[in-house]
Structures are given as C-alpha cells and as structure tokens.
Amino acid sequence: MSKKIRVLIADDHPVVREGLCAVMQARPDLQVVGQARDGEEAVQLCQSLQPDVVLMDLVMPRQSGVEAIREIRRMQLPARVLVLTSFAEEAHIISAFQAGALGYLLKDSPPSELIEAIRCIYRGESSVQPAVARRLILKKSRPAKREPKGAALTNREVEALKLIARGLSNESIAAELSIDLGTVRYHVSNILSKLHLENRTQAALYALREGLATLEPWP
Fold first, then answer.
1. Rounded to two decimals, what is the model's pTM?
2. What b/e sequence results for 121-158 when a residue is b if at least 16 CB atoms lie within 10 Å of its CB, and e otherwise?
3. Contacts of 111 (CB under 8 A, 6+ apart)
4. What is the spatial distance between Cα 201 and Cα 118, in angstroms, rounded to a whole number?
5. Rg (CA), the chain
6. What is the DSSP letter of 107?
7. 148, 195 in Cβ contact below 8 A?
8. Minimal CA–CA distance to 177: which of 165, 188, 163?
9. Which residues, including other chains, have CB under 8 Å from residue 97's CB and lie 6 or more apart?
10. Which end is more exposed in the chain, N or C (fewer Cβ atoms within 10 Å of the end residue's Cβ)?
11. pLDDT of 24
12. What's the confidence (pLDDT) of residue 97?
C-alpha cells in the first residue's frame, strides 16, 4: 500500500473537525493523525505528530491560524498548510499566503475539491480556489513598494510560470518542458527573484492576474 497522507485538522469547532474526519476516513490515501482546537495546539501537534498536511482555520482562540502558520514555517517543520476557512476577504487571503500557506479553500467547497486540494498540497503544489483567486486578480490597489515586471522573464521562464500557475510540481514541469529538474529549480528561483515574489502560490496568482494563465480547468 502506498504511503498515506497524514493530515492534522486545526479548527476551534468540534463539529467541523468531526465532519472533516468523516470525509477523510472514506479516502484510503488519507489519515487524520490529530485535531487541534487552536493555533497554539496546532503548532505543538505539528512538532509531535509530524503531519504531512495541516488543514488550518484562520480565526481561532489563543493563537490565530496565520500566527500558527508563521510559527510552523519559523520552526522549519515539514508540514504543508492548506487554509480552510469561511473568510474570503482579501486581507485574510494575503496574510495567509504571506505567512507561508500553500493553499486556500473556503468551507463551503465540496468534499471532492477539499480532497484534491489536500493531495495537491502534499505534492508541494499550490491549490487556490477559483473564487479566492478572482478576489486577488480583481484587486485594485497594488503594493506600493515594487511592482513585478513580467517583461524581465525569459521565454523559458514564462513557460515555466504558466505551468506553475497550473499547479504542476517541479518534476512535472521538467517532464512537460523536457528539461532536467535542476534547470526547473533554477527557472523557478529566477521567476520568484525577478518578480519579487515569495513563493509559488504568489507566482501562480501573478500569472493569473497578468493573463498568462486562466481559471479554466486544463484537460
């Protein structure tokens, strides 16, 4: 049997936690290894249980989800974070990604979408719900410090950026472009540096905003 994806659920509502457990119990490749009632407990359980993926609510007592994500990243724990929340406001979305989340999903999403997002996050790919991405694409005010310049990218880097926006991992990008993995990593590093972005999720959202990718599903 292939390795199961070890999932930690962090939410202050017991009904939500139990509902998520029920959804994942039906999937043979997923295993819920723990439940946290707040951000502080989520960080503690990430240390002791070493989950692969954390489903993180944003508004919780004692320590918020964003603060917990920052702490997980600061401690260099291996867990990858998928935000699962009711909040679709721009400020929440941006704060979560800046803290280090790899994905953002709303609680009204269908179970199939949640399961696929968990699998994407486990593979190290970004997962952004279309409704969430649209809010960032339609954002009117941009940060005042430095505006990314897409013209600085080479043709090959643009190709790689488009594939990042599709959610492909480095290995999949290498296969798609028929180049080695080291070259892909070099391209990804250049893309983030040239566009003044912090992670792949921000790169994917940039590609969507600039029209280099769409929200339509790929075949």
1. 0.67
2. bbbebbbbbeebbebbeeeeeeeeeeebebeebeeebb
3. 23
4. 15
5. 17
6. T
7. yes
8. 163
9. 104, 198, 199, 201, 202, 205
10. C
11. 92
12. 84
**What is residue 21's three-state secondary structure?**
helix
Report the sign of the C-alpha dihedral through residues 171, 174, 180, 186, in that order: negative
Q: Is the distance from CB of 161 to CB of 207 less than 8 angstroms?
A: yes
Tokens of 165: 């926006």
What stretches in the chain show pLDDT beneath 70? 1-2, 130-131, 133-151, 213-219
Domains of the chain: 5-137 (3.40.50.2300), 150-209 (1.10.10.10)
User: d(Cα 208, Cα 135) in Å, to the nearest integer?
Assistant: 11
Residue 80 to residue 103: CA distance in whole angstroms: 9
The Cβ of residue 211 has, within 10 Å, a number of other Cβ atoms equal to 9
Is-contact 47 78, C-beta < 8 A?
no
Phi, psi of 53 (to 5 degrees): -135, 140
* Residue showing tokens 């920052």: 70
Tokens of 41: 């407990």
DSSP 8-state assignment for residue 145: S
Residue 104 neighbours by CB under 8 Å, 6+ apart: 82, 83, 85, 93, 96, 97, 127, 128, 129, 132
**Which H or E element spans position 95?**
helix 90-99
- Report CA-CA distances (Å) from 205 to 37, 94, 150, 197, 213: 31, 11, 13, 10, 9
